[in-house]
Amino acid sequence: MNFFICGFTGAGKTTFLKKLSVSEHLKIKEFELLDLDQVILENFSDYKSLADLIADKGFSEFRKIELKSIMKISLHGPTILALGGGSLRNDTIEALKDWQGLWLNETFETCYSRICGDKSRPIADLPKNELEKLYLERTSFYSRYKEIKTIGQVIEIICK
Predict the structure, then answer these.
(1) What predicted TM-score, i.e. pTM, was given to this entire model?
(2) Which CATH superfamily is domain 3-159 in?
(3) Which long-range contacts (CB under 8 A, 24 or more apart) does 136-144 make?
(4) Which residues in the chain land under pLDDT 50?
């Protein structure tokens, strides 16, 4: 079984994955822990950030790269994958249909405070009202999956 962690930009998916990586729980150690954004940047090492990659290639091409990366990761063994904030779309949901989704739900205000002014984040330059609208749109995708808040919850889900 493969798992993905979704949530808005700034929800803490990467941090959550890092906490999982230091877990001593034997079940977690069976999984490859991957951050989709990091996987993409490793494959496009000429770029310092996703924002730079998107500025050069455009969002449309970036979304294609993202989907190809997800499909390639799907060939791996047991994986826990932290998605990017905008990764869940109809095409990626189809690619991840055999995966179990986990939603790291965080308030808009918390996400906004974490991404505001962060030039490495592709959408950080958007006005707050546009970000909030995007947050609400994306929540309709995220909310299809099991909501999580703690590492313990993830371990419990994985052990079932």
Answers:
(1) 0.93
(2) P-loop containing nucleotide triphosphate hydrolases (3.40.50.300)
(3) 136/108, 138/8, 138/85, 138/86, 138/88, 139/8, 141/6, 141/88, 141/89, 141/93, 142/6, 142/7, 142/8, 142/88, 142/103, 142/105, 143/103, 144/101, 144/103
(4) none
